[in-house]
Amino acid sequence: MVKLTKIYTRTGDAGHTALGDGSRVAKTDLRVNAYGTVDELNALLGICRLHAGGDLDAALMRIQNDLFDVGADLCTPEQEDPPFEPLRVTEPQVEWLEAEIDRINAGLETLRSFVLPAGSPAAAHLHHARTVARRAERDSAALATAAPINETVLRYLNRLSDYLFVLAREANREARGDVLWQPGEHRGP
Membrane-spanning regions, if any (predicted)? Predict the structure, then answer.
């Protein structure tokens, strides 16, 4: 269980931070960047929840909790014999996202154009969250080129961006409909 009695420690004042295994790295480290972007995504989902109710709010709360798991996973480097069992993202978390994507997408109209990130307030914020999820995935992939990571994290973030896309489409279906891209519409007379 986490117990926070003091919020500031001054240990990061020189530009370094502690990882989940106790080692210290620069705050510009790829690992810190990856879990920092996951944290940003989690905060953005909190904004999405302001426009959500019922099942959508519950689903986003579940994702927020899972994103803490993702952050903890990324924060703790892979080790052969760790002194404690690190928290790792698991395949059932990815499978839940896939099942939800399939369930929601089954009720949506087939797309005949790309969707602009717009529409209802909920959809617009979910589209924004989708783009941050893609950045979290890219940052985690960059980390994976420099250090071993749990590959399930990459699958989770990839599915999460897809999930946020179908959630945005669902939010627009319930409001005013998707805003579709009109290719070349403003190229000239």
Answer: none
**Residue 180 carries which DSSP code?**
B
Q: Helices marked H in 25-180 — which ranges?
A: 30-49, 54-75, 91-105, 121-146, 151-174
Count of domains observed in the chain = 1
Side chain identity at 3, as an amino acid letter?
A: K
Among left, alpha and beta (phi > 0; psi -120 to 50; other), residue 89 is beta
Let me know if 110 is exposed, middle or buried by CB neighbors in 10 A (0-12, 13-18, 19+). exposed
Q: What is the CATH number of the domain that holds 98?
A: 1.20.1200.10
DSSP string, 13-64: TTSEEE-TTS-EEETTSHHHHHHHHHHHHHHHHHHHHTT--HHHHHHHHHHH
Over the stretch 149-178, which tens digit does the pLDDT of each residue have? Answer: 999 999 999 999 999 999 999 999 877 788
Is 179 part of any domain? no
